[in-house]
Amino acid sequence: MNRMLIGGQWVDARDGETIPVVNPSDGQVFDQLPRGRAHEVDLAVKAARAAREGAWGKMNATERGRILQKLAQKVLDNHAELANLEAKDTGKPMTTAKNDITVLARYFEYYGSAADKVHGEVIPFLDGYTVTLLREPLGVTGHIIPWNYPAQMMGRTLAPALAMGNAAVLKPAEDTSLSALRFGELALEAGLPPGALNIVTGLGHEAGAALAEHGDINFVTFTGSNEVGTLVQQAAAKNAVKCVLELGGKSPQIVFADADLDRALPIIVRAIVQNAGQTCTAGSRLLLQRSIYDSFIARVAEAFAKTRVGTPEMDLDCGPLMNPAQLERVNGYVNRAKQDGLPVLAEGTIAAGTPSGGYYVKPTLFGPVPRTNRLACEEVFGPVLAAFPFEDEADAIALANSTPYGLLAAVWTENGGRQQRVAKAVSAGQVFVNGYGAGGGVELPFGGTKRSGHGREKGFIALEEMSQTKTVVQYHG
Ligand code: NAD
């Protein structure tokens, strides 16, 4: 039976209630999680506050960094176990799950080694003064993460927060909390003081909402849907608390006629099929210059038709979707597109032998998609790729920027001037030139523009997001 981590103790929900844990590969319940609510969130925030004011807050940065690096090593030492847990909980192929655990460790290596390299500044001011800009932790940080990359998201958000000396309360997604709980054990083994990291499992509208609106947190970071992101931001606003939002995307792959198409082809297919399309940065729109549209889309279709879906153990191109709601959502988009008469250019296959109760869908390629269709601007969050022809650079940029989102974009061209112009013109937090996806990319600042959210994670910039300055103005004559 799983328990939550609060103040260094493993606890049940006060009322003993639990949430079933379902394996998306076969739809079977295989475990239970405590159903934490406002009461448990409150205990976790109090424990975090005590840690901030106690051993954790007083620890010097070098020692903090050492503990985080030790934790990275613990993750690597337990890599196989964590990857198996993650694969079973999410249904993703073993290779992807293993990579996710490697990236989790990498976050703690990166930020652990950065902990004592972030420092303040001295600002030139009037004669007789010395002005010091201190960089300080925010205090108690709340972290609400989704189910698509549980281990990676946990690393992305917790490692910089802890590196800066904040004490954290994590609310993992109710579908995928197992790797977080195992990680919590490793954190204690690595020497993280009680209360520095607290993990409250539970439902979004209960534990998640209670964390977002708690009056004694100093920061909240949320990754997930736009609807819930709005609620989290409203809750944070009521307490005048800083908030980082990582929301959805409808990211374009813009392919010009002069591109290295052989290099682009597998990357384009993988960018949407990977993780069954349940990636905020999925390359879900394929924009092809008209002169190569017919020839290249035929190659994409051929590659798409070869994609295969199966269980983690089969380790194919992708696994099932996360849950029945996701299955209904993705099937809804696909069926509606078919009813709208959009041409289906290719479908992948669900491998023989996949259990009947799992949430599997075939990767599907539609094209050409009218620019006014839902598939042109709404996030499906499934392995569905929409293709569009474009005329020239100006048309490509207009089409790329025609959705409410702005998370990632890729430009494929051998023309150096065009690479720069398009990269600057597209609305996105990250732009790839002749490539796509960071594969972890712990070092690379990441985040959204427009409805994809605000604030930045990853890279050194996350350390700034998770801290604040204090200006000390000293007159000494
Ligand atoms: P969600 O936004 O409902 O859940 C994300 C997290 O928020 C979970 O931990 C959940 O428990 C919590 N949550 C839910 N309701 C809450 C509330 N009222 N207050 C505080 N926390 C709450 O996301 P979902 O239902 O799991 O996925 C739905 C859609 O979200 C997807 O189809 C996709 O569009 C988007 N999504 C985006 C990302 C991303 O990385 N950008 C990741 C996952 C999902």
Tell me briefly what this model is.
This protein is an alpha/beta fold.
**What does the radius of gyration come to?**
23 Å
Looking at the structure, the CATH topology of the largest domain is Aldehyde Dehydrogenase, Chain A, domain 1
CATH superfamily (homologous) name of the largest domain: Aldehyde Dehydrogenase, Chain A, domain 1
How far apart are the first and last residues' alpha carbons, in Å? 65 Å
Task: Estimate nothing, just give the exact number of structural domains.
Answer: 2
Shape label:
globular
**What CATH architecture of the largest domain would you give?**
3-Layer(aba) Sandwich
- Identify low-pLDDT runs: none
Helix percent band: 25-40%
Number of strands: 24
Small molecules held by this entry = nicotinamide-adenine-dinucleotide
Question: Explain this structure to me?
Answer:
With about 475 residues, this protein is of the alpha/beta class. The protein folds into two domains: about 5-245 and about 455-475, Aldehyde Dehydrogenase, Chain A, domain 1 (3-Layer(aba) Sandwich); about 250-440, Aldehyde Dehydrogenase, Chain A, domain 2. Helix content is about 40%, strand content about 20%. It is built from 16 helices and 24 strands. It has helices spanning about 40-55, 55-60, 60-75, 80-90, 95-115, 150-165, 180-190, 205-210, 225-240, 260-275, 290-305, 325-340, 375, 395-400, 415-425, 460-465, and strands at about 5, 10, 20-25, 30-35, 120-125, 130-135, 140-145, 165-170, 195-200, 220-225, 240-245, 250-255, 285-290, 310, 345, 350, 365, 385-390, 405, 410, 430-435, 450, 455, 465-475. A seven-stranded mixed β-sheet has the order 15-17-18-13-12-20-21, sandwiched between helices. Strands 9-8-7-10-11-23 form a six-stranded mixed β-sheet, with helices on both faces. Helix 9 links the parallel strand 10 and strand 11 (about 240-245). Helix 3 packs across helix 7 and helix 5 (about 95-115) runs parallel beside helix 6. The model has no long low-confidence stretch (mean pLDDT about 95). Nicotinamide-adenine-dinucleotide (NAD) binds near residues 144 and 171. The site of nicotinamide-adenine-dinucleotide has 25 residues, from helix 8 and helix 9.
